């Protein structure tokens, strides 16, 4: 049996562009595995996250070649709600992910769309906030929070859907050291629960939670030797 997240010969080119941003990417993320993706700014890490999460081709335009399989089903054959119960993505910029004037409503949105009973939704709000250490922010307006706090709320909202695959696109970029420590612990706990995790990272200090580190460079994704100096390879 293959892992819950598989990319086969994956490539992508923006509309009107001849040269692909990346091509021929093969990746399998197993249950309980954390795969980090590193690369220079503009190398295509976020676009790769969009392809792995079904946003491309389901929402965004462009020419995606190859396939991404979630639980062995191609994203081309899934609807967005079907993707959302399997996979959660925390975006690089949390502002693109937060819509509601109240933190609790933000986190309830996903479970409400699954038509879960109100008590279950309440529990998920509480559990999600507890996991990211934001219990006291329940009634606050997410848009009035700091960048790091917004990242934590976006993460709690994603966790409330209980997805088995998680993609973090620089989800720690705006957090202080305490916040980063908490998220790294959370990533390890999610790994322990058997979830498949992809984390895009620019901070080498955060790579210790990853089982494998992949470098996106010159349109290709290659596994790095853990002893290699990241800055030399970039
Ligand atoms: N809609 C678009 N049309 C054409 N080019 C685009 C479009 N969106 C992004 N790009 C370009 O694609 C490249 C990859 O962008 P992407 O955001 O995936 O990189 P990234 O590795 O995530 O960068 P960062 O580390 O800064 O987040 C960049 O050169 C960007 O300018
Ligand atoms: Mg990016």
SSE topology:
Layout lengths: L4 E9 L8 E8 L4 E5 L6 H8 L2 H4 L4 E8 L2 E2 L5 H7 E4 L12 H11 L4 H14 L15 H13 L5 E5 L7 H16 L3 E5 L11 E6 L2 E4 L6 H4 L1
Parallel strand pairs: 3-8, 3-9, 6-7, 7-8
Antiparallel strand pairs: 1-2, 1-4, 4-5, 9-10
Helix pairs in contact: 4-5, 4-6, 5-6
The chain binds adenosine-5'-triphosphate (ATP) and magnesium ion.
Describe this structure in words.
The protein has helices at residues 45-52, 55-58, 80-86, 103-113, 118-131, 147-159, 177-192, 230-233, and strands spanning 5-13, 22-29, 34-38, 63-70, 73-74, 87-90, 165-169, 196-200, 212-217, 220-223. Helix content is 33%, strand content 24%. The mean pLDDT is 95. Strand 7 (165-169), helix 7 (177-192) and strand 8 (196-200) form a beta-alpha-beta unit. The protein has 234 residues and is an alpha/beta fold. The structure holds adenosine-5'-triphosphate (ATP) and magnesium ion.
Keywords:
234 residues, binds magnesium ion, 4-stranded antiparallel sheet, alpha/beta, Rossmann fold, binds adenosine-5'-triphosphate
